[in-house]
Protein backbone atom coordinates (compact mmCIF):
# COMPACT_ATOMS: atom_id res chain seq x y z
CA UNK A 1 0.00 0.00 0.00
CA UNK A 2 2.97 2.25 0.21
CA UNK A 3 2.91 3.09 -3.40
CA UNK A 4 -0.07 3.68 -5.54
CA UNK A 5 0.73 3.12 -9.18
CA UNK A 6 -0.03 6.03 -11.29
CA UNK A 7 -2.31 5.33 -14.18
CA UNK A 8 -2.63 7.31 -17.33
CA UNK A 9 0.99 8.37 -17.34
CA UNK A 10 3.35 7.85 -20.21
CA UNK A 11 4.76 4.45 -21.13
CA UNK A 12 3.86 0.97 -20.03
CA UNK A 13 1.19 0.80 -22.67
CA UNK A 14 1.71 -2.85 -23.33
CA UNK A 15 1.15 -3.88 -19.72
CA UNK A 16 -1.90 -1.74 -19.44
CA UNK A 17 -3.89 -4.19 -21.45
CA UNK A 18 -3.69 -6.76 -18.72
CA UNK A 19 -5.35 -4.43 -16.26
CA UNK A 20 -8.93 -4.97 -15.36
CA UNK A 21 -9.65 -1.34 -14.71
CA UNK A 22 -8.35 1.56 -16.66
CA UNK A 23 -9.19 4.34 -14.19
CA UNK A 24 -6.46 5.77 -12.03
CA UNK A 25 -6.12 4.43 -8.53
CA UNK A 26 -4.17 7.46 -7.47
CA UNK A 27 -5.54 8.97 -4.31
CA UNK A 28 -4.89 12.59 -3.68
CA UNK A 29 -3.06 12.62 -0.37
CA UNK A 30 -3.03 16.38 0.09
CA UNK A 31 -6.10 16.66 2.37
CA UNK A 32 -4.76 13.83 4.45
CA UNK A 33 -1.45 15.60 4.84
CA UNK A 34 -3.35 18.74 5.77
CA UNK A 35 -5.24 16.87 8.41
CA UNK A 36 -2.18 15.14 9.76
CA UNK A 37 -0.22 18.34 10.09
CA UNK A 38 -3.20 20.10 11.58
CA UNK A 39 -3.34 17.46 14.31
CA UNK A 40 0.39 17.60 14.73
CA UNK A 41 0.37 21.36 15.13
CA UNK A 42 -2.53 21.14 17.56
CA UNK A 43 -0.74 18.66 19.75
CA UNK A 44 2.51 20.56 19.73
CA UNK A 45 0.86 23.84 20.55
CA UNK A 46 -1.44 22.56 23.26
CA UNK A 47 1.25 20.59 25.04
CA UNK A 48 2.69 22.74 27.75
CA UNK A 49 5.87 21.78 29.37
CA UNK A 50 4.78 21.07 32.89
CA UNK A 51 7.99 20.68 34.80
CA UNK A 52 7.66 20.85 38.53
CA UNK A 53 10.88 20.61 40.45
CA UNK A 54 11.46 19.80 44.07
CA UNK A 55 13.35 21.43 46.85
CA UNK A 56 14.80 19.04 49.39
CA UNK A 57 14.19 20.38 52.87
CA UNK A 58 15.22 19.18 56.28
CA UNK A 59 13.29 20.29 59.32
CA UNK A 60 14.92 18.69 62.35
CA UNK A 61 12.51 16.81 64.55
CA UNK A 62 12.51 18.44 67.99
CA UNK A 63 14.02 16.25 70.72
CA UNK A 64 11.57 14.51 73.04
CA UNK A 65 10.69 16.60 76.11
CA UNK A 66 12.51 14.31 78.55
CA UNK A 67 15.83 14.99 76.84
CA UNK A 68 17.82 18.16 77.38
CA UNK A 69 17.52 20.59 74.47
CA UNK A 70 20.62 20.92 72.28
CA UNK A 71 22.95 23.78 73.22
CA UNK A 72 22.01 26.99 71.47
CA UNK A 73 24.04 27.81 68.37
CA UNK A 74 26.24 30.88 68.78
CA UNK A 75 24.58 33.66 66.86
CA UNK A 76 27.34 36.27 66.64
CA UNK A 77 27.72 35.64 62.92
CA UNK A 78 24.07 35.22 62.11
CA UNK A 79 21.48 37.28 60.35
CA UNK A 80 17.87 36.91 61.38
CA UNK A 81 15.41 37.63 58.62
CA UNK A 82 11.85 38.32 59.62
CA UNK A 83 9.43 37.78 56.75
CA UNK A 84 6.12 39.54 56.92
CA UNK A 85 3.22 40.83 54.85
CA UNK A 86 3.56 42.47 51.41
CA UNK A 87 6.85 40.68 50.74
CA UNK A 88 8.63 42.83 53.30
CA UNK A 89 11.71 41.66 55.11
CA UNK A 90 13.13 43.01 58.34
CA UNK A 91 16.47 41.83 59.62
CA UNK A 92 19.02 42.21 62.35
CA UNK A 93 22.45 40.77 62.98
CA UNK A 94 23.59 38.63 65.85
CA UNK A 95 21.80 37.92 69.07
CA UNK A 96 18.50 39.59 69.86
CA UNK A 97 18.61 42.06 72.72
CA UNK A 98 15.39 43.51 74.00
CA UNK A 99 15.07 46.97 75.41
CA UNK A 100 16.63 47.12 78.89
CA UNK A 101 18.21 43.67 78.74
CA UNK A 102 20.13 42.48 81.80
CA UNK A 103 23.39 42.19 79.81
CA UNK A 104 23.27 45.91 79.23
CA UNK A 105 23.68 45.55 75.46
CA UNK A 106 22.12 48.12 73.15
CA UNK A 107 18.65 47.06 72.09
CA UNK A 108 18.29 45.43 68.68
CA UNK A 109 16.78 47.52 65.96
CA UNK A 110 15.29 46.18 62.74
CA UNK A 111 16.46 47.12 59.29
CA UNK A 112 14.05 46.94 56.43
CA UNK A 113 14.61 45.41 53.01
CA UNK A 114 12.69 43.49 50.39
CA UNK A 115 13.21 40.62 47.97
CA UNK A 116 14.82 42.77 45.30
CA UNK A 117 17.56 43.96 47.66
CA UNK A 118 18.09 41.12 50.06
CA UNK A 119 20.26 39.14 47.68
CA UNK A 120 22.77 41.96 47.36
CA UNK A 121 22.85 42.31 51.11
CA UNK A 122 23.50 38.64 51.75
CA UNK A 123 26.06 38.34 48.97
CA UNK A 124 27.91 41.37 50.36
CA UNK A 125 27.99 39.85 53.85
CA UNK A 126 29.06 36.47 52.60
CA UNK A 127 31.42 37.35 49.76
CA UNK A 128 34.41 35.41 51.08
CA UNK A 129 32.46 32.18 51.04
CA UNK A 130 31.02 32.94 47.62
CA UNK A 131 34.51 33.64 46.28
CA UNK A 132 35.67 30.27 47.61
CA UNK A 133 32.66 28.53 46.11
CA UNK A 134 33.18 30.18 42.75
CA UNK A 135 36.83 29.22 42.82
CA UNK A 136 35.86 25.64 43.53
CA UNK A 137 33.26 25.62 40.78
CA UNK A 138 35.92 26.89 38.38
CA UNK A 139 38.25 24.06 39.33
CA UNK A 140 35.44 21.61 38.80
CA UNK A 141 34.54 23.05 35.41
CA UNK A 142 38.15 22.75 34.33
CA UNK A 143 38.00 19.10 35.40
CA UNK A 144 40.78 19.50 37.95
CA UNK A 145 38.70 17.81 40.63
CA UNK A 146 36.13 15.05 40.47
CA UNK A 147 32.48 15.60 41.18
CA UNK A 148 32.70 13.82 44.52
CA UNK A 149 35.58 16.01 45.62
CA UNK A 150 33.68 19.04 44.43
CA UNK A 151 30.56 18.20 46.40
CA UNK A 152 32.54 17.30 49.52
CA UNK A 153 34.57 20.51 49.41
CA UNK A 154 31.47 22.51 48.69
CA UNK A 155 29.84 21.13 51.80
CA UNK A 156 32.99 21.83 53.75
CA UNK A 157 33.16 25.46 52.67
CA UNK A 158 29.47 26.00 53.30
CA UNK A 159 29.69 24.37 56.71
CA UNK A 160 32.55 26.49 58.03
CA UNK A 161 31.51 28.00 61.32
CA UNK A 162 32.85 31.44 60.43
CA UNK A 163 30.33 31.72 57.63
CA UNK A 164 27.25 33.80 57.74
CA UNK A 165 24.35 31.87 59.20
CA UNK A 166 20.74 32.74 58.67
CA UNK A 167 17.58 32.32 60.65
CA UNK A 168 14.43 32.77 58.65
CA UNK A 169 11.45 33.63 60.79
CA UNK A 170 7.99 34.20 59.49
CA UNK A 171 5.17 35.98 61.22
CA UNK A 172 1.50 35.15 60.75
CA UNK A 173 1.22 37.24 57.61
CA UNK A 174 4.10 35.90 55.53
CA UNK A 175 3.26 33.77 52.52
CA UNK A 176 4.66 30.37 51.72
CA UNK A 177 6.11 31.88 48.54
CA UNK A 178 8.22 34.27 50.63
CA UNK A 179 9.72 31.39 52.53
CA UNK A 180 10.60 29.46 49.35
CA UNK A 181 12.13 32.60 47.83
CA UNK A 182 14.20 33.12 50.93
CA UNK A 183 15.45 29.54 50.88
CA UNK A 184 16.43 30.15 47.26
CA UNK A 185 18.39 33.22 48.29
CA UNK A 186 20.25 31.09 50.83
CA UNK A 187 21.38 28.85 48.02
CA UNK A 188 22.39 31.76 45.80
CA UNK A 189 24.37 33.52 48.50
CA UNK A 190 26.12 30.34 49.62
CA UNK A 191 24.70 30.22 53.12
CA UNK A 192 25.00 26.62 54.20
CA UNK A 193 23.47 26.76 57.63
CA UNK A 194 20.07 28.27 57.94
CA UNK A 195 16.89 27.43 59.72
CA UNK A 196 13.26 28.24 59.16
CA UNK A 197 11.08 29.06 62.14
CA UNK A 198 7.49 30.16 62.16
CA UNK A 199 7.35 31.62 65.64
CA UNK A 200 8.82 34.85 66.89
CA UNK A 201 9.80 35.75 70.41
CA UNK A 202 7.29 38.07 72.02
CA UNK A 203 9.76 40.97 72.02
CA UNK A 204 10.67 40.31 68.40
CA UNK A 205 7.00 40.33 67.47
CA UNK A 206 6.51 43.61 69.30
CA UNK A 207 9.46 45.17 67.53
CA UNK A 208 8.24 43.84 64.19
CA UNK A 209 4.72 45.13 64.78
CA UNK A 210 6.13 48.57 65.54
CA UNK A 211 8.23 48.44 62.37
CA UNK A 212 5.25 47.30 60.30
CA UNK A 213 3.17 50.17 61.58
CA UNK A 214 5.60 52.62 59.97
CA UNK A 215 5.11 51.11 56.50
CA UNK B 1 -2.38 29.66 -30.99
CA UNK B 2 0.21 27.34 -29.73
CA UNK B 3 -0.32 26.08 -26.26
CA UNK B 4 2.27 26.59 -23.61
CA UNK B 5 4.32 23.48 -23.39
CA UNK B 6 3.87 21.72 -20.10
CA UNK B 7 6.38 19.26 -18.76
CA UNK B 8 5.21 15.77 -19.46
CA UNK B 9 5.51 14.28 -16.00
CA UNK B 10 2.70 14.64 -13.55
CA UNK B 11 3.12 17.76 -11.40
CA UNK B 12 1.56 16.10 -8.40
CA UNK B 13 4.00 14.90 -5.80
CA UNK B 14 3.69 11.60 -4.11
CA UNK B 15 2.43 12.64 -0.71
CA UNK B 16 2.51 9.19 0.85
CA UNK B 17 5.85 9.48 2.69
CA UNK B 18 4.80 12.85 3.99
CA UNK B 19 1.57 11.40 5.33
CA UNK B 20 3.55 8.58 6.86
CA UNK B 21 5.83 11.01 8.58
CA UNK B 22 3.06 13.31 9.76
CA UNK B 23 1.02 10.51 11.23
CA UNK B 24 4.08 9.00 12.81
CA UNK B 25 4.69 12.29 14.59
CA UNK B 26 1.03 12.65 15.54
CA UNK B 27 1.00 9.16 16.98
CA UNK B 28 4.24 9.81 18.82
CA UNK B 29 2.94 12.98 20.41
CA UNK B 30 -0.38 11.44 21.30
CA UNK B 31 1.18 8.43 22.91
CA UNK B 32 3.94 10.21 24.78
CA UNK B 33 1.85 13.12 26.00
CA UNK B 34 0.49 12.65 29.46
CA UNK B 35 -2.63 14.45 30.40
CA UNK B 36 -2.22 16.49 33.47
CA UNK B 37 -4.33 14.59 35.99
CA UNK B 38 -7.59 16.23 36.79
CA UNK B 39 -6.91 17.81 40.12
CA UNK B 40 -9.50 18.35 42.77
CA UNK B 41 -7.55 21.34 43.87
CA UNK B 42 -5.69 24.14 42.15
CA UNK B 43 -2.30 24.71 43.68
CA UNK B 44 -0.12 27.40 42.20
CA UNK B 45 3.30 26.46 43.47
CA UNK B 46 5.98 29.11 43.93
CA UNK B 47 9.04 28.95 41.72
CA UNK B 48 12.51 28.07 42.89
CA UNK B 49 15.96 27.64 41.45
CA UNK B 50 16.08 23.98 42.38
CA UNK B 51 16.43 21.73 39.38
CA UNK B 52 15.94 18.31 40.87
CA UNK B 53 13.12 16.52 39.13
CA UNK B 54 10.00 15.29 40.81
CA UNK B 55 9.80 11.54 41.46
CA UNK B 56 7.20 9.70 39.42
CA UNK B 57 6.15 7.13 41.97
CA UNK B 58 6.41 6.05 45.59
CA UNK B 59 5.51 9.55 46.58
CA UNK B 60 2.96 10.75 49.07
CA UNK B 61 2.06 14.39 48.59
CA UNK B 62 0.38 16.63 51.09
CA UNK B 63 -1.15 19.60 49.32
CA UNK B 64 -2.11 22.91 50.83
CA UNK B 65 -4.22 25.18 48.64
CA UNK B 66 -4.37 28.97 48.83
CA UNK B 67 -7.18 28.82 51.37
CA UNK B 68 -5.12 26.62 53.66
CA UNK B 69 -7.11 23.44 52.99
CA UNK B 70 -5.08 20.28 53.25
CA UNK B 71 -5.25 17.43 50.73
CA UNK B 72 -3.65 14.03 50.52
CA UNK B 73 -2.33 12.33 47.41
CA UNK B 74 -0.39 9.17 46.68
CA UNK B 75 1.05 8.02 43.40
CA UNK B 76 0.81 4.31 44.01
CA UNK B 77 -2.66 2.98 43.11
CA UNK B 78 -2.48 -0.22 45.15
CA UNK B 79 -1.38 1.71 48.21
CA UNK B 80 -4.21 4.16 47.68
CA UNK B 81 -6.76 1.37 47.69
CA UNK B 82 -5.27 -0.23 50.79
CA UNK B 83 -5.32 3.15 52.53
CA UNK B 84 -8.98 3.62 51.65
CA UNK B 85 -9.85 0.18 53.01
CA UNK B 86 -7.96 0.85 56.23
CA UNK B 87 -9.40 4.32 56.80
CA UNK B 88 -12.86 3.09 55.78
CA UNK B 89 -12.75 0.54 58.60
CA UNK B 90 -12.47 3.36 61.11
CA UNK B 91 -15.73 4.91 60.01
CA UNK B 92 -17.52 1.64 59.17
CA UNK B 93 -17.35 2.25 55.46
CA UNK B 94 -16.71 -0.69 53.18
CA UNK B 95 -16.01 0.64 49.69
CA UNK B 96 -17.27 -1.32 46.71
CA UNK B 97 -14.95 -2.54 43.97
CA UNK B 98 -16.07 0.36 41.78
CA UNK B 99 -15.39 2.90 44.49
CA UNK B 100 -11.96 1.44 45.10
CA UNK B 101 -11.10 1.79 41.45
CA UNK B 102 -12.43 5.31 41.45
CA UNK B 103 -10.38 6.21 44.48
CA UNK B 104 -7.24 4.88 42.78
CA UNK B 105 -7.62 7.52 40.08
CA UNK B 106 -9.11 10.58 41.74
CA UNK B 107 -5.84 12.31 42.63
CA UNK B 108 -5.74 14.53 45.69
CA UNK B 109 -8.41 13.92 48.32
CA UNK B 110 -9.43 16.57 50.78
CA UNK B 111 -12.55 15.63 52.71
CA UNK B 112 -12.99 14.35 56.26
CA UNK B 113 -12.79 10.56 56.49
CA UNK B 114 -16.47 10.44 57.43
CA UNK B 115 -17.33 11.90 54.02
CA UNK B 116 -15.27 9.55 51.88
CA UNK B 117 -18.28 7.32 51.14
CA UNK B 118 -20.30 10.28 49.85
CA UNK B 119 -17.36 11.53 47.82
CA UNK B 120 -16.73 8.22 46.13
CA UNK B 121 -20.39 7.59 45.41
CA UNK B 122 -20.14 10.41 42.86
CA UNK B 123 -19.24 9.52 39.35
CA UNK B 124 -18.27 12.83 37.80
CA UNK B 125 -15.15 14.76 38.65
CA UNK B 126 -17.02 18.06 38.64
CA UNK B 127 -19.48 16.82 41.26
CA UNK B 128 -16.65 15.52 43.41
CA UNK B 129 -14.88 18.84 43.17
CA UNK B 130 -17.99 20.73 44.23
CA UNK B 131 -18.51 18.31 47.08
CA UNK B 132 -14.91 18.76 48.23
CA UNK B 133 -15.38 22.53 48.30
CA UNK B 134 -18.01 22.14 51.03
CA UNK B 135 -15.33 21.04 53.47
CA UNK B 136 -12.23 22.64 54.84
CA UNK B 137 -9.89 19.97 53.53
CA UNK B 138 -8.57 17.21 55.75
CA UNK B 139 -8.99 18.27 59.39
CA UNK B 140 -5.66 19.06 61.05
CA UNK B 141 -6.75 20.50 64.38
CA UNK B 142 -5.38 18.86 67.48
CA UNK B 143 -8.68 17.34 68.59
CA UNK B 144 -9.44 15.76 65.24
CA UNK B 145 -6.14 15.39 63.47
CA UNK B 146 -7.07 13.24 60.51
CA UNK B 147 -3.98 14.26 58.55
CA UNK B 148 -1.96 12.25 61.05
CA UNK B 149 -4.10 9.22 60.29
CA UNK B 150 -3.67 9.64 56.55
CA UNK B 151 0.11 9.94 56.90
CA UNK B 152 0.62 7.11 59.37
CA UNK B 153 -1.71 4.71 57.54
CA UNK B 154 -0.09 5.47 54.17
CA UNK B 155 3.38 5.06 55.60
CA UNK B 156 2.61 1.79 57.33
CA UNK B 157 0.94 0.28 54.28
CA UNK B 158 3.73 1.43 52.01
CA UNK B 159 6.38 0.21 54.41
CA UNK B 160 4.84 -3.24 54.78
CA UNK B 161 4.68 -3.52 51.03
CA UNK B 162 7.96 -2.03 49.89
CA UNK B 163 10.16 -2.23 53.00
CA UNK B 164 10.97 1.46 52.89
CA UNK B 165 9.27 4.73 53.57
CA UNK B 166 7.58 6.59 50.74
CA UNK B 167 8.98 9.88 49.54
CA UNK B 168 7.14 12.67 51.27
CA UNK B 169 6.37 15.82 49.34
CA UNK B 170 4.71 19.01 50.36
CA UNK B 171 2.98 21.00 47.66
CA UNK B 172 1.65 24.29 48.84
CA UNK B 173 0.24 27.28 47.04
CA UNK B 174 2.56 30.28 46.97
CA UNK B 175 -0.12 32.50 48.48
CA UNK B 176 -0.90 30.30 51.43
CA UNK B 177 0.01 31.81 54.74
CA UNK B 178 3.21 30.20 55.89
CA UNK B 179 1.71 29.57 59.32
CA UNK B 180 -0.65 27.00 57.76
CA UNK B 181 2.23 25.28 55.98
CA UNK B 182 4.18 25.34 59.23
CA UNK B 183 1.26 23.62 60.93
CA UNK B 184 1.52 20.77 58.42
CA UNK B 185 5.29 20.64 58.91
CA UNK B 186 4.75 20.40 62.66
CA UNK B 187 2.49 17.42 62.07
CA UNK B 188 5.33 15.90 60.00
CA UNK B 189 7.68 16.43 62.93
CA UNK B 190 5.32 15.28 65.65
CA UNK B 191 6.08 12.13 67.62
CA UNK B 192 4.90 9.02 65.84
CA UNK B 193 5.47 10.51 62.39
CA UNK B 194 8.84 12.21 62.66
CA UNK B 195 9.42 13.09 59.06
CA UNK B 196 12.32 15.50 58.95
CA UNK B 197 13.29 15.20 55.31
CA UNK B 198 10.79 15.94 52.62
CA UNK B 199 10.53 17.61 49.27
CA UNK B 200 8.80 20.85 48.58
CA UNK B 201 7.30 20.90 45.13
CA UNK B 202 8.01 24.10 43.25
CA UNK B 203 7.92 25.33 39.69
CA UNK B 204 11.15 25.76 37.89
CA UNK B 205 12.13 29.42 37.84
CA UNK B 206 11.31 30.93 34.44
CA UNK B 207 14.88 31.97 33.87
CA UNK B 208 16.02 28.35 34.17
CA UNK B 209 13.68 26.99 31.53
Report what the structure shows.
The complex is a heterodimer of chains A (215) and B (209). Chain A has helices at residues 13-16, 30-46, 118-125, 127-141, 147-159, 176-188, 202-213; strands at residues 52-58, 78-84, 88-93, 111-114, 165-170, 194-197. In chain A, strand 2 (78-84) and strand 3 form a beta hairpin. In chain A, helix 4 (127-141) runs antiparallel to helix 5. Chain A is built from 7 helices and 6 strands, in the order ααββββαααβαβα. Chain A is of the alpha/beta class and 215 residues long. Helix content of chain B is 40%, strand content 14%. Chain B has 7 helices and 6 strands, in the order αββββαααααβαβ. Chain B has helices at 16-32, 77-90, 97-105, 116-121, 125-133, 146-162, 178-189, and strands spanning 47-48, 52-53, 59-64, 70-74, 167-172, 197-204. A 5-stranded mixed β-sheet of chain B has the order 1-6-5-3-4. In chain B, helix 2 (77-90) crosses helix 3 (97-105). Classes of the chains: A alpha/beta (215), B alpha/beta (209). Chains A and B meet through helix 2, strand 1 and helix 6 of A and helix 1, strand 1, strand 2, strand 5 and helix 7 of B.
Topology:
The complex is a heterodimer of chains A (215) and B (209).
Chain A: H1 13-16, H2 30-46, E1 52-58, E2 78-84, E3 88-93, E4 111-114, H3 118-125, H4 127-141, H5 147-159, E5 165-170, H6 176-188, E6 194-197, H7 202-213
Parallel strand pairs in A: 2-5, 5-6
Antiparallel strand pairs in A: 2-3, 3-4
Helix pairs in contact in A: 4-5
Chain B: H1 16-32, E1 47-48, E2 52-53, E3 59-64, E4 70-74, H2 77-90, H3 97-105, H4 116-121, H5 125-133, H6 146-162, E5 167-172, H7 178-189, E6 197-204
Parallel strand pairs in B: 1-6, 3-5, 5-6
Antiparallel strand pairs in B: 3-4
Helix pairs in contact in B: 2-3, 2-6
Amino acid sequence: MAQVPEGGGGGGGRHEKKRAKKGSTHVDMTPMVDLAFLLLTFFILTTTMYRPSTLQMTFPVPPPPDQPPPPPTPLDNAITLLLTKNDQIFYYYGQFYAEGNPEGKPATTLERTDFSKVQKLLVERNKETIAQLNDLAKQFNEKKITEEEYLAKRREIKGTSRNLKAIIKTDGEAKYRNMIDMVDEMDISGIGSYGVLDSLKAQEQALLDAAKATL
Amino acid sequence: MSKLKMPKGSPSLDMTPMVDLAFLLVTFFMLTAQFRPEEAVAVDTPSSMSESAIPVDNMMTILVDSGGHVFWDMTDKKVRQAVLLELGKRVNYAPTEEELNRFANVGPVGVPIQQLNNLLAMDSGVERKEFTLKFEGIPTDSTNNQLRDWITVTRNIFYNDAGQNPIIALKADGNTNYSKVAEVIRIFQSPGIQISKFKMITDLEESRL
